[in-house]
Design brief:
The complex is a heterodimer of chains A (339) and B (490). Chain A has 339 residues and is mostly helical. Chain A is 71% helix and 0% strand. The chains are: A mainly alpha (339), B mainly alpha (490).
């Protein structure tokens, strides 16, 4: 049994082998995403349809359509270019130039001629400036609120807390943004309504979006964490801990919180890479030049290449999140093996 | 006939859902073990009150689903010509609300417009002032009387609403007591000898005691029904003479818009399940039961779909749908059918992006179930796979489906507003909470602010979503087998 080479390896080696395997698994999924976006953007509607839509339905000449397609490189065959020779048969096609390039993060150009890759790189900063603090403050607030409700479970405080959560989660996310902007910026004039500036000056612009982002999630998240904690608190080890004479607080923090880490991580780690994408609503309401507002602008301008790039980037980050989740399990729970 | 019934695509789907719902209800009624969890739902006061609110929304939505096109008065050479405008029974019921359009914004219960205009006075002089509304408070000779008039009409409306409410509560309680004896025939005539006579005909104290028992066990529901009846009476009486919630930019009554938005929200929340349910059920159970390569393929499909952030996937799909709709104008005979098809497509897209979660749950549950002894016994007896699936697996995952569907409903209603804001929601010409908010949010900067359209949209949405959430919680509590019942009772 000890001759098994698995046992001879060290933990980091295992980790690297595991990561490589997981990345290999991710490739077919990304290929699937790529094919799906390709089908959605080029097969459901031909480039001619898109040209007609953007140039206006009624008065559009075939020359104008050809011109539009040529400018954007849509004038090639979809999958196989029979006119070309050699490797160009495959590479001189829409699929190769518009879809396959995304695997090496080559996103091409948007309709106004800018490099999408460069836009993404510069816009990630502002997106993160909002999304990361929202995520971290939110996590602390939600978990604390949920712990408080768990501590006072089945009392009036708990019932009021749950009722508050249900009420808060029934309010539209748009209301938090509009209401917050009205109250804090228009009525109290504490921070500017919208806008963004780099460096230290950015603080007064990001405070309100962060606050609103945290407030908007209190309802559903706190209630979810409370459910997790309540599930843990009914287990036998908690009874044992209480029987040993531990105080309720010690039980909650030292035992319940630790054991609830696995379900918490499952929901939390996945979204960390997606923070780069920013929030569509917040960024567009507050005029923050991040990826979220980039996406919204592209949707409104019907810039298909940008939307395509964001779809691919989003799923790439999601898959990274899934891998990170699995790795994080091994850190908090020694029973979880990388296999 | 002076009208032509119109069945839009979404109408047909709603009718289909309604028929399916009634069939399910009829089936459940005949099976005591299926009825049991619903009895638990019925015991919860919050659930029943939210069900009452939800059914009010549902009635408005259903009335708004019966569409028709009215005939034009002049005939074109003997052939009846119909208006291109598609109306609903609900539109006809609240005709004053629909027809009383002002010039532009006016505040709730206002008698004048929100903006100043040049008015030619009696002496021919031109003054800048707030002009009187065409309909809101037009019956008043003097604007000063408005407050007392509003108060009086509100009181009269509230009183008549309360009367109607009391009447309805009275009739239902009578029916309930008749039903009590009709449904529970006495097991032994010796024990409950007089129970065959309906309690009220027995009269006297016994009848009153029954009534008290009914009121006690349903007090929350009765109070909620009376409050709602009072509110509706008040609103209805005022709405005939004022714009209770003001008017929007083009002068449409905001109350009318809010009520019309209900149908859109309900359709997004329910029709989507028509796509979600078959896909998730079929694929989830197939993956869990057949395993092997089927499982691999299905898992691959849902992993790919769920790895794309849903807003982006929806946005991409809706953009493509827009291209298809724009390039095929010949598909639609009225603008309503165009907006309607877009709504149906939106539901399809939402369904395509949201079935993966339920599918994963069903796959997991089926994997667990197929290892259980009774299913292995069925397999050993040579029962066919199809029969095992329909007889043993599907009924045992139904609670998961039901919980997922009621939980999804409120999320979908909220999503509609967000998607419409992003620009990938319903057609801009379709009245919905999202388009209301979208239209009103640009007026935030005005001084004084135009707040009423936003408030109305958010208020109605909150009422709908809160009721749906509370009801969903009760359903989950009643159906979730993981909950310890004895603890829940104690």
């Amino acid at each position: 049994m000890f001759g098994n080479p698995m046992f001879a390896r060290t933990i980091p080696e295992l980790m690297i082998a595991y990561l490589i395997r997981r990345i290999l698994y991710a490739i077919p999924i990304l290929i699937g995403v790529n094919l799906l976006t390709f089908a959605l953007f080029f097969v459901v509607n031909t480039p001619d349809d898109m040209a007609r839509m953007q140039l206006g339905i009624k008065r559009v000449t075939p020359e104008a359509i050809e011109n539009w397609k040529q400018q954007r490189g849509y004038d090639k065959p979809l999958l196989i270019n029979r006119a070309a020779g050699g490797a160009d048969k495959i590479t001189d096609t829409i699929f190769w130039q518009k879809s396959a390039g995304m695997f090496v993060l080559d996103f091409g150009y948007s309709d106004d001629g800018r490099s999408i890759g460069r836009e993404i790189a510069t816009r990630m900063g502002p997106s993160l400036a909002i999304a990361l603090p929202t995520f971290m403050i939110g996590l602390v607030v939600y978990v604390s609120f949920a712990l408080l409700m768990t501590l006072f479970r089945a009392t009036a405080l708990d019932i009021a807390g749950v009722a508050l959560c249900v009420l808060l989660m029934s309010v539209s996310g748009l209301f938090y943004i509009i209401g917050g902007q009205f109250l804090v910026s228009k009525l109290w004039h504490l921070v500017p309504i919208s806008g963004y500036a780099g460096g230290a000056d950015s603080l007064r612009f990001v405070v309100l979006p962060i606050m609103i982002g945290v407030a908007g999630g209190i309802g559903s998240s706190s209630r979810w964490y409370r459910t997790i904690f309540l599930e843990e608190i009914g287990k036998d080890y908690v009874r044992t801990a209480r029987a040993k004479g531990l105080s309720e607080l010690a039980v909650l923090f030292r035992h319940v919180l630790k054991n609830a880490m696995i379900p918490i991580l499952t929901g939390v780690v996945v979204v960390i890479p997606l923070l780069f994408m920013g929030s569509l609503l917040t960024e567009s309401f507050f005029g923050i030049p991040g990826l979220g507002s980039y996406t919204i602008d592209a949707i409104n301008a019907q810039d298909f290449s940008v939307v395509r790039a964001m779809v691919f980037l989003g799923s790439l980050l999601y898959i990274v999140g899934l891998i990170l989740t699995d790795v994080s399990y091994t850190i908090v729970d020694p029973r979880v093996r990388l296999s | 006939m002076n009208f032509m019934p119109v069945i839009l695509w979404s109408d047909a789907l709603v009718f289909l859902l309604l028929a399916a719902g009634i069939a399910c209800a009829w089936y459940v009624r005949r099976h005591e073990h299926l009825l049991l969890p619903w009895r638990r739902v019925a015991q919860s006061a919050t659930a029943m009150v939210s069900l009452l609110v939800l059914s009010l929304f549902l009635v408005v939505g259903l009335l708004d689903t019966l569409h028709f096109r009215a005939a034009l008065p002049e005939k074109n050479g003997g052939v009846t010509v119909y208006t291109p405008e598609v109306l609903s029974v609900f539109d006809k019921l609240v005709e004053p609300l629909r027809m009383h359009t002002e010039k532009t914004y006016s505040a709730p219960l206002a008698t004048t417009l929100y903006t100043k205009e040049s008015i030619t006075g009696v002496q021919g002089n031109v003054v800048r002032d707030y002009p009187r509304l065409r309909y809101g408070g037009a019956h008043l000779a003097d604007v000063q009387q408005r407050d007392s008039d509003v108060l009086w009409r509100a009181l009269v409306g509230a009183a008549s609403g309360l009367m109607v409410g009391l009447l309805i509560v009275g009739i239902t309680s009578l029916l309930w007591m008749q039903n009590l004896d009709g449904n529970n025939p006495p097991q032994s005539p010796l024990v409950r000898g007089d129970a065959r006579t309906p309690p009220l005909t027995r009269g006297g104290w016994e009848g009153l005691a029954h009534l008290k028992k009914y009121i006690d066990s349903n007090s929350a529901l009765i109070i909620a029904a009376l409050i709602l009846a009072t509110l509706i009476g008040m609103l209805a009486n005022l709405a005939a003479f004022y714009h209770v919630l003001g008017t929007d930019k083009v002068g449409q009554d905001v109350l009318y818009l809010s009520l019309k938005s209900i149908r859109t929200g309900l359709i997004i929340g329910t029709v989507t399940t028509l796509v979600t349910l078959p896909l998730a059920l079929l694929l989830g159970i197939a993956a869990g039961y057949l395993r092997g390569w089927v499982d691999d393929v299905i898992q691959y499909i849902y992993t790919v779909l769920s790895s794309i952030p849903s807003v982006l996937l929806i946005a991409a799909a809706v953009l493509m749908m827009q291209v298809t709709i724009e390039t095929h104008p010949e598909w639609f005979d009225t603008s309503a059918s165009r907006a309607d098809l877009r709504l149906v497509f939106l539901c399809l897209i939402l369904g395509m992006t949201s079935w993966t979660g339920l599918c994963r749950l069903l796959r997991g549950e089926t994997l667990k179930l197929r290892e259980l002894e009774y299913i292995q016994a069925a397999q050993a007896f040579g029962v066919s796979s199809l029969r095992i699936l329909t007889r043993h697996i599907v009924p045992n995952v139904m609670h998961i489906i039901l919980i997922a569907l009621v939980m999804d409903f409120s999320a979908l209603v909220l999503a509609e507003a967000v998607l419409s804001y992003v620009g990938v929601g319903v057609d801009p010409s379709m009245i919905s909470f999202g388009t209301m908010i979208n239209g009103a949010r640009l007026e935030m900067g005005r001084e004084p602010m135009v707040w009423w359209a936003l408030a109305a949209a958010f208020g109605f949405m909150l009422a709908l979503v809160l009721a749906a959430n509370l009801f969903a919680d009760a359903v989950r509590d009643a159906f979730d087998p993981r909950l310890n019942r004895t603890e829940a009772v104690a």
